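User: Fold this, then the next.

Assistant: Folding the first:
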Amino acid sequence: MVTKPRAWGVKAPAAEPGTDTKLKVLILVKKGCDDLARAVKMELEQFGIAYGCVPLKSSTGCGAASSIVRTCPESGYGAIIVISGDSVHEAHMLTRASVVPMCLVLNTGGRSAKHWLRSMSDLIGVEVGSGIPVFLSGDPHDDLTAAGNAALHAAKCLALHDQKLRKRIYMLIVEGSPASI
């Protein structure tokens, strides 16, 4: 099941009746980061996790995306993955609005390791609410690895509430067997 919020400035969609609302991840993607979004989606599908995908639009600012982030728990999203490219401004704003675990993916776009380290140090200073985990994922040499790590972290956050998902993750990581149960 893939759910997509329809428009900016509205609540994230409610979970469909009969679905497990804790097993959903909201993916916020900045333009130009579609390959990273695909990598995240493939990783989530491997664990059987439903997701919604919303574009981060620079022209509308973070206000609309922040309103979607704030309504995530009521809409059944248990984690958020933000793929904001090398722009840390959106990640800062959205992390401050979040009440669920967040995974921030930093895309270097082939830039130098120095640029990557500067962006990571900016993200480390993110102000978040007490008790809300924030995972920073980035790799100066391989952006797809960073995206996969963010999806795995989101799956682990959701697994705190779901025994079957915990078992899938264990089977895939520790035993190296397929995640199908």
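Now the next one, as you asked:
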Amino acid sequence: MNDLINLSLDQVHALALRAATVNGMGEDHARAIADTITRGQRDECHSHGLYRVLVCVHSLRSGKVDPQAQPRVSRLAPAIVRVDAQRGYSLLALQTGLPLLVEQARELGVAALVIRNCFHFSALWPEVEAIAAEGLVGLAMTPSHAWVAPEGGRQGVFGTNPLAFAWPREGREPFVFDFATSAIARGDIELHARQGKPIPLGWGLDAEGRPSTDARAVLEGAMQTFGGHKGSALAAMIELMAGALIGDLTSAESLAFDGGAGATPLRSMASCCWPSTRRAFSAASWRPAGSGPRRCSPPSPTRARGCRRSGVSPPASAANAKASGSAGRYWTTSSA
């Protein structure tokens, strides 16, 4: 179903906020989630805009998420901030821990934030953009569910395991990328399945481990990493750094926890940031050319400003969507 509907960004935000609150989510959580969904839709990344609303509702109804959870912030070491999300969503946990992360990075030169015991279903780029808005360089990563086969494998071992980076630039939008270590975000495969569209070879395998262009068969089988062994290595690193290293779940453990309930992954996140300099601000003034399948609807700040004026056009099928996965986004601009 390819029909589009037109909504203002205020309508997108109101729809996401209402969907969360009428299903029992606390106001702080609901606003954090609505803000992120609106940004995804504003940036025309349909797999991480309104398409995420029903997975949020579904996870609430699974009973695995605490919709009223209040994050707890502590320090593991002078440069390490830990937030226990208390089985709530990661977005409020990040907002709660971000001020201390920024303070420590400015004081010590580098700092890390780890979020444990959380559910996360949204893109990472809004999180590193929040770090860049403070004039800091940000890096974030998280495991997910074991949907992705390592290079040469036939069964899911890794999550889509996204990695996001933001570099602030004076007088310009930050240089930002956010991509899954899988060949594509899982949400994009689910969108293809809902619309009855084939997917390119290289995105995934069927249940027998054979390369497939059937989106539904791949959802029943396993996704593939990007770049062969290179994507596998990055996925493994993220499993270790944002899972085992901080004492939380790997993607395989997260999938077992889910138990088929279809809830969003219980998982951990790690973010690091460093102060930038005026010389650093002048760097990265290029615009990357080309993207391949890891790029998710690459927006520009100009397009985002246009969406604020004229609204957005999400697929009408987003009203019935149910998805989870990680974003792929890579853009920058050289104009002020």
